[in-house]
From TrEMBL:
Pfam families from the UniProt entry: Glyco_transf_9 (PF01075)
Organism the protein comes from: Arachidicoccus soli
GO cellular component, as recorded: cytosol
GO MF assignments: ADP-heptose-lipopolysaccharide heptosyltransferase activity
Gene3D superfamilies reported for this sequence: Glycogen Phosphorylase B
Keywords of the record: Glycosyltransferase, Transferase
Protein name: Glycosyltransferase family 9 protein
GO terms for biological process, alphabetical: lipopolysaccharide core region biosynthetic process
């Protein structure tokens, strides 16, 4: 039996599919499992031991189609479900399974603020796509695997951080998913512990502003200094994680870390809150500014606040965030 699982993007969404990959492998141990994603997200699954072969989309659809046709898959499991995967369905003509995307329900929630979303996490909907194959959830939550060569040695960290630290993920793909600089400085000032700031290269300057603006002398700006897997390893080595709605939040869940999830333009109502699996302790807390009729305003986040006030992030209570963190620990 040969399977192809498709999830093109992005980091967090790919991590959220990992229980489906693992459970398929465990319940079809002799099958050949292939995975298709965008080339720029190669690092997310490259070390996943449950995947036998990778395929990468890099803007050349004809080449991809030819490559996949030659594999003669028995089943294609579509965990992305967009026009591109529909084109593949017409081309490959294998047996096709897909998850319930809920595009209409998400539109109603974000544009009209009518909540008819089922109370079922996206990870469980991905697993439901495999029901006809007899695949069941093992309850073990998310996976993330780090190549040995990308692990971060403790001697690369300051002495102040080698005995333990917390991670604050300051990056996110869109403006409305991120706390403003001054709120992040306010948050850091209230935490009496070593902190590592995580994000991409594009977040480095913001990290420097936080380091220079904070009263704390225990902040390390690691934004852009390590690969994605290096940052994931710092999450793995951390004691706790505070994160916006972004990929490292779900990687933290995969490592069973206590998570404070801060929500702005997006919302856990979109069935994407931190996920740990039924067999694990779900140690997390969502922070959402209450009584905002405009929240959530988007499924993915936007480049600016549609209402121009950005209350969903500017009104976040950093004192309550730190108190909750102390309670969790």
């Amino acid at each position: 039996m040969k399977f192809l699982i498709i999830r093109f993007s992005s980091i967090g969404d790919i991590v959220l599919t990992t229980p489906a990959i693992r459970c398929l492998r465990k319940q079809y141990p002799n099958a050949e499992i292939h995975f298709l994603t965008k080339k720029k997200f190669k690092a997310v699954t490259i070390a996943n031991p449950y995947i036998d072969k990778f395929h990468y989309y890099d803007a050349n659809f004809s080449k991809l189609k030819k490559e996949l046709k030659s594999e003669h898959f028995d089943y294609i499991i579509d965990l992305h479900k967009n026009l591109r995967t529909l084109r593949l369905w017409f081309s490959l003509r294998s047996k096709w399974l897909s998850y319930q995307k809920l595009s209409i329900q998400k539109f109603l929630l974000t544009k009209l603020h009518i909540d008819v979303m089922p109370k079922k996490h996206i990870t469980l909907r991905c697993l439901e796509a495999l029901i006809s194959l007899g695949v069941k959830d093992d309850g073990l939550g998310l996976d993330y695997f780090i190549p040995k060569e990308e692990e971060v040695a403790l001697d690369k960290l300051p002495l102040s951080h080698r005995d333990g630290f917390g991670a604050i993920v300051i990056g996110a793909s869109y403006y409305t998913k991120k706390l403003p600089d001054y709120k992040l400085i306010e948050l850091c000032d209230k935490i009496a512990a070593p902190i590592i700031l995580l994000g991409g290269k594009e977040d480095f300057d913001e990290g420097e502003k936080i380091v220079l603006g904070s009263k704390s002398k225990l902040i390390l700006n690691a934004c852009g200094k390590f690969s994605l897997n290096g940052s994931a390893d710092l999450v793995k080595k951390s004691s706790w994680v505070i994160s916006h709605d972004t990929g490292l939040q779900y990687i933290a869940c995969a490592f069973q870390k206590p998570v404070i999830a801060i929500w702005g333009g997006t919302s856990p109502k979109l069935a994407v809150e931190p996920y740990y699996g039924e067999q694990n302790l779900a140690l997390y807390k969502n922070f959402i500014v209450p009584d905002l009729p405009c929240q959530p305003c988007s499924n993915f986040g936007t480049k600016s606040c549609p209402k121009k006030h950005f209350k969903c992030m500017k009104n976040q209570d950093t004192t309550s965030i730190v108190k909750e963190l102390e309670k969790m620990l």
